[in-house]
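Protocol step 4 of 6.
Sequence for DUF2796 domain-containing protein (Mesorhizobium australicum) entered exactly as in the expression construct, tag removed. Do not edit the line below.
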Amino acid sequence: MGLHHYAGRLFAAGIFAVISAGYAEEDHRELGSHVHGRATLAIAVEANSVQIEFAAPGMDIVGFEHEAETARQKRAVETALADLREPLKLFVFPETAGCTVTSAEVNVIAEDDEHHDAEAETDDTAETEELDDRHAEFRATYALACADAAQLTSIYFPFFDRFAEAHALAVTIIDADGQSSSDVTSDYRHLER
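Step 5 output, structure tokens:
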């Protein structure tokens, strides 16, 4: 692994540490840890490498936040995970940038998993209350290689067509010019840089 590749990974890791700290501070100011209908997308561009982090409440992606119980809910989660593994169908960059996905990792994260399991073993009432309070979140990290990242001048978001329960997406972009933040919505789904 070359020094440039290692430096690129450090750059991306540092960017996402800053972005994550910013989101944590914002979440702390809000009531609750996330807002239904609002997902986040962080994009770091260095040379022709693009790193993306995505997070969205389960309600926005599959319409519920508890663990999938029915066959229909399980299918909804599996379909959502499969769709989220194809980021360039959800977040569309200009063709002239020539971007391809080199890695995609998608997970469903449930808050208080260990606490919930302990409660479930001791008291059925506590299990029901704990389930009601838990929040599942879909998270993804992507790596892209682009032929010409300078052409990343706009993003279109078919994401809102696929996930109709999502109403807003907070987008942070960090590149050689600095950091910018914008909101896109299901009504306004095009971002110009």
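Step 6, annotate. Residues 35 and 52 are 20 Å apart (CA to CA).
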